[in-house]
Amino acid sequence: MTSLAMKFAGVAAGVAAAVALTACGSGDDASDGITIVASTNVWGDVAKSVAGPDVKVESLISDPTADPHSYEVTAVQAATLTDADLVVYNGGHYDEFVEKIVGGKGKRTVNAVEIGQGDDHDHGTQPTTPADGHGDEPRPTAPADDHGHDHGDEAQPTAPADDHGHDHGDEAQPTAPADDHGGAGTPASPGHDHDHGNEHIWYDVHVVGAVAEHIAEELGEIDPDRKQDYADRAAAFTARLAGIEAITDRIAAEHPDQPVLQTEPLATYLLLAAKAQDRTPHEFQEAIEQGTDPSPAAVAAVRQLIEGKQVRALIYNIQTEDKTTEDVRALAEAADIPVVEVTETLPEGVDYIQWQTANAEALAEALR
C-alpha cells in the first residue's frame, strides 16, 4: 500500500514543530503508570490483551471509517508518542510517521514488520518469481535486534513475502508468467508491495502472536514485578489465535487454490493461510494503492476476470473505496460473486480475535 510517509508532505512542518514542542515534555515519571501508544487500534488491541487493566493503552488511529493512507498526525499525538513508555507500531513504512517522531530518541518500540522478519518458522513453498529475472519479490533483511528497540536512523527492513508462520506444507502459490513485467493482466504476487513487502502484516496471525510475546517481554523489562502476568496474558492471547488458523486450515483443506480478486492486497496473508490464489492484475492493485486511476487495460482485465467468473470471491477494502472499486464491486455483485468486506483498522465493538475470526469465516463462506 502507499507509504503513509508519502501522504505527509503537507504536514511535515507540523510534525517537526510537534517534535520540538514535545522535547521538553514530561517523560519517565513512574508515578504516572505505564503507557503504551499504538499507531492503530489493531496493535492497540493486541497490546491491551497483553498489558491488562493497569496499563494505559492509547491508539492513534481508531476511527473505523478512517483511511490510514491519508492519516495526518497531530501535535498532541506526537507528544503522546514522545511520552510513551512503549510504542507499538506496524513498521514497513506503513506508519512511518511513528519513526519520524520517535526515531533516534531511545524509545522502547515494538515493530511488527521487524518481528515478522525475525520469525524463522517455515510457511511452506514460496511464491514463484518470474523466469525473466525481473521479479519484484522483496528481499528481507534481518531485524537489528529481537526486541524492536529503536536505533535511530537505521534503514527499516522489508517484510518477507511469506516467511513467518508455522509449516503448512507445500502451499501452491500463484505462479507469475515467464514474461512478467507487471503488466495489466499479470496476477499480483502475494508479497509484493512497493519493494518493501506486504505491510498488512496484522492479517498474519503468527506474526500477531509473536508481537504479543514481544510486548510482554518489553513490559516485563519495564515492570519486572508483573513480568509473569504479562507473559501469561500473551500466552492466552496467542492460544486464542489458533481458532482463526483452524478456519483457514479448513479452507485450505476443503477448497484449496481458489482464485480470488482483491481491490488491494490487504488480506494477502489471510489468503495465503487459506491457500487461495490472488488473481488480481498487478497494475490494477498498484494503481489503487497509489490512489491513481488504473489503466483501461487493467480495468478490462479485472472486468474479464469477473464477467468470465474466473474468480470465486472479491476481497473488498471498504476503507479505501473510490469510483473504480465501487464499479468493481457492482460487477461482482451482478455476476453473483461473493464480496468479502475487509478493513485496515478494528471495527467498533470487537477485539482483534473476533475481527479476524469473522474475516476468516466470511472467506470460508464465500469459497464454500
Description:
The protein is 40% helix and 9% strand. The protein is of the alpha/beta class and 368 residues long. The protein has one domain: Rossmann fold (3-Layer(aba) Sandwich). The strands form 2 sheets. Strands 2-1-3-4 form a 4-stranded parallel β-sheet, sandwiched between helices. α8 links the parallel β5 and β6. The two termini are 29 Å apart. The N terminus is likely disordered.
The helix/strand series, from N terminus to C terminus, equals HEHEHEHEHHHEHEHHEHEH
Helix content: 25-40%
CATH topology: Rossmann fold
Sheet with the most strands? 4 strands, parallel
Mean pLDDT: 78
Concise synopsis of the structure shown:
This protein is α/β, with parallel strands linked by helices and 368 residues long. The protein has helices spanning 12-22, 41-51, 75-83, 96-102, 112-118, 205-222, 227-254, 268-273, 282-290, 296-307, 323-334, 352-367; strands spanning 35-40, 56-61, 86-89, 109-111, 259-262, 277-278, 313-317, 339-342.
Helix and strand topology:
Blueprint: H1 12-22, E1 35-40, H2 41-51, E2 56-61, H3 75-83, E3 86-89, H4 96-102, E4 109-111, H5 112-118, H6 205-222, H7 227-254, E5 259-262, H8 268-273, E6 277-278, H9 282-290, H10 296-307, E7 313-317, H11 323-334, E8 339-342, H12 352-367
Parallel strand pairs: 1-2, 1-3, 3-4, 5-6, 5-7, 7-8
List keywords for this structure.
368 residues; alpha/beta; Rossmann fold; four-stranded parallel sheet; 12 helices; 9% strand; disordered N terminus
